[in-house]
Amino acid sequence: MFSKACEYGIKAAIYIAMQSLQGRRVSLKEIAEKVDSPVAFTAKILHQLAKNDLLVSTKGPTGGFEIEKERIDQIKLADIVFAIDGDSIYEGCGLGLKKCNAEKPCPVHDKFVIVRDELKLMLQNTSLYELATGLEVGLTFLKR
What we know:
Rrf2 family transcriptional regulator, two-stranded antiparallel ribbon, WH-like_DNA-bd_sf
């Protein structure tokens, strides 16, 4: 459903949020290792998230990535998805057809609109804090 970059971006943001809640700034190498992503690819993804003001990047020997504690609850999954994949997940045909809309629907159009709307609602209502604290208590996992 999400691009590979978006999947890694979500995992990385959750890991950074977890560490930020503990007052830690984390290195690119550590993040890439924890989310099982290539370092160069992770760097590109984190740059996009920083460019969209979702995390803070600090250079230098004590540098790394962090999220301001007070912002962790304000950042929603929708913000991360939009920063990496844009809004394409909310558009397009469920079957991948070029011409599909309410006036000329594909066979799954009406059902897909419902699923897409529910996904959008979930992404807009799920905070990074909720995910980070869920991981801390063992309710969810970063790696398979």
